[in-house]
Amino acid sequence: MIAPRDARGAGTRAVGLDIGGTKTHGVVLAEDGSILAQVRESTRSGAEGVVDTAERVFEALRRDVGEPLTLPVGVGVPGLVDVGRGMLRHAVNLGVNGDDLPLRDLLADRLGVPVVLENDVNAAALAARALSGADDVVYLSVGTGLAAGLVIDGRLRRGEHGAAGEIGHLPVDPAGAECGCGQTGCLETIASGRALARAWPTPDGPPAADLFAAAAAGDVKAIAVRDRFCWGVASAVRALGLTIDPERIVLGGGVSEVGEPLRVEVVRQLRALGEGSPFLASLGLADRLSMVPLHYPVAAAGAALVASG
């Protein structure tokens, strides 16, 4: 079981980097699975920017730990990942589009250690499984984008093309906004950090925290924006429940830093969706929903687990 706490002085076990569209988060896990060191840096867009950012974070971790980091590094990235070849495609949130990018080898050359590449949400799903103790777990990441990692019978399900769990690109509104994937009205255009920032722009600070605070204070517009956003998240949970039927569904990602108010509102939307459907209500999706512990770097910790085997 991964322990969501600091543990300086314990032996180094694994290193993980979570490269997101906004931030890159690196962790060093101790032998007991607890966090020995962690570093965050803003992610530079594009292939060269991603590699430069990863190097900055890795070097900062090495300075923080105070010893060489010679272990393999697990790296989680958004987009379609060919794990065997170490290739990345269609990571639109990183500014990486189109043809295969040999990111694993680029990072290994720059960091000077072996690198294991994995989709970021898949990596996080492994950490979510360790935290929950369940063998059938769906990890739903509500971050810059929207995607799910699937652990079925204790094993990651990546899919034939690495696209399993790309729930954010499921179209739900033919009259909706254009998605970065090229489709229209995808769930990601409703229930993601980017969508929320468009619907509730703030001059500084996380828009999610500001939105939920304004809604709690009774702001009518904030309540409408919050409810549509949480309906989108609940719709993703419903789709995952109907297709995977997992034991646990774990919410995470940057927007989940809102904490318990997010879970409460998503549960309310799930119960509303089931009001007209005894079948849907019988599935008890709201009762299977939990959240990653607040401020726990689940994707970076999962990337470290990928590297440690």
Tag the structure with descriptive keywords.
309 residues, alpha/beta, Nucleotidyltransferase, domain 5, 2 domains, five-stranded mixed beta sheet, 38% helix, disordered N terminus, kinase activity
Describe the structure.
GO terms for molecular function: kinase activity. Belongs to the ROK (NagC/XylR) family. This is Putative NBD/HSP70 family sugar kinase. It holds the Pfam family ROK. InterPro entries: ATPase_NBD, ROK. This protein is α/β, with parallel strands linked by helices. The chain has 2 domains: about 10-125 and about 295-309, ATPase, nucleotide binding domain (Nucleotidyltransferase, domain 5), CATH 3.30.420.40; about 135-290, ATPase, nucleotide binding domain (Nucleotidyltransferase, domain 5). The protein has helices at about 45-65, 105-110, 120-130, 195-200, 205-215, 220-245, 260-275, 280, 285-290, 300-309, and strands at about 10-20, 25-30, 35-40, 75, 80, 85-90, 115-120, 135-140, 145-150, 155, 250, 290. The strands form 3 sheets. Strands 3-2-1-4-7 form a 5-stranded mixed beta sheet. It has a 5-stranded mixed beta sheet with strand order 10-9-8-11-12, sandwiched between helices. A hairpin with a 3-residue loop joins β8 and β9 (about 145-150). α1 (about 45-65) packs parallel to α2, α5 (about 205-215) crosses α6 (about 220-245) and α6 (about 220-245) crosses α7.
